[in-house]
Write a structure and sequence with these properties.
This protein is mostly helical. The chain has five helices and no strands.
Length: about 140
């Protein structure tokens, strides 16, 4: 048992011990910021040019959010179109060649006065252009 020179020292230490025990037994939190439900543990590093950074910073400021939050929202809601495969590129070249040939035939039929042939050529040209436009919309 420790020696106390004053009665107030003993009472003060007992009060302090009681207060600490109450806090531990009460199950209260330690305080501080609460733990987030979803932790953001992964980091992605992105290199940007000055103009890209300036543009993104402007968009984030306009939206009233931080750049990192802007990137998160853009990644969730943004749409990225895949690159055109070499096979698709070949198909486009063939379609473009067909459209070019049809244009030449239409011009020739117009010069020669073949109106029926000219009408069919124009319809085919329109269909080819619609196919190309449809592919790029997807």
């Amino acid at each position: 048992m420790p020696f106390y020179s004053r009665w107030s020292q003993k009472v003060g230490e007992e009060k302090l011990r009681n207060i600490l025990e109450e806090r531990l037994n009460a199950g209260k939190s330690k305080g501080g910021r609460p733990v987030k439900k979803i932790k953001r543990e992964k980091i992605i590093m992105v290199r940007l040019s000055k103009t890209d950074h300036f543009m993104i910073e402007g968009k984030a400021n306009k939206a009233g959010i931080k750049i990192s939050e802007w990137f998160r929202q853009a990644a969730k809601a943004g749409k990225v179109s895949p690159r055109i495969s070499p096979e698709d590129l070949k198909v486009f070249r063939i379609l473009a060649g067909m459209a070019n040939n049809l244009n030449q035939l239409t011009k020739l039929s117009h010069e020669q006065g073949l109106l029926v042939f000219q009408k069919k050529c124009r319809e085919l040209i329109g269909e080819i252009h619609e196919l190309i436009a449809k592919y790029f919309r997807e």
